[in-house]
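Handoff note, outgoing to incoming analyst
You'll be picking up this chain. Sequence as last confirmed:
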Amino acid sequence: MRYRQNRWVRSEFTLFTRDQVRIAGTHITYAKAKQDPDPLALGIVLAHGFTGNRNLEHVQKVVASLREFGGVLAIDLRGHGESGGEGTMGMDEVLDIDSAIAHARDFGYRTVATVGFSMGGSVVLRQAALADSAHRPHAVVSVSAPGFWFYRGTRIMRVVHRLIETQSGRLALRGKGVHVTSTPWPEPPPMSPEQAVETFKDLPLLVVHGDVDRYFPLEHAHALQRAAERSGNPNTQFRFVSGFGHAETAISQEILNEIGQWLSAQADSAR
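Most recent structure output, in case you need it:
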């Protein structure tokens, strides 16, 4: 669905997760007028990447594109932006998505989908696998996500690991407004994105990945693809994009439109 005129209603909201972390968000919905599309057909929960937040220009670009297809609930994941708590690099952030999905359903959206980029892409995959029926999304889009943990195969990911694993690195991140926990992950580590995808039996899933990603090369998307094949999920699509780099900063308007159209199709199917 595409809305014909710019009649947007923007509101700020605050949520508290099951572990009592304060999550800040922005909700952009369409003000329904006579003969316009149904503004409650589709709600899109948007999860940014590591060091991102909902007010950054490249995240706002995604919001502006996706609002053409449904209401958008863009949140700051824990430890980022205006949210409280400390980031856990994709482990406890699933609780942030749980809260946003519940908020979207309370608002009245009949179909709720999640869209995540990079770390947020891993979070929405894990959240869908771990959620109970009250918090499970109708569809998931994961863009530029890692397929597996502890990847140090690119220079920039070696830098990221140094930032999150050292006190000096975490202090540097705090200077940029990003708060990361110093508590290591448990053993065994949390369910990986590929393990999450393997649990999807019929959940509609779209995975988008670029062939010039400097963070997570295509081997990560291929790991997710193999997991989807093992699951036997007939509702999985993979979009490998030539010339696409990484996440929100590199994604084109064309690909964002494709994602929006795919989400609209899922909303139509859910009716």
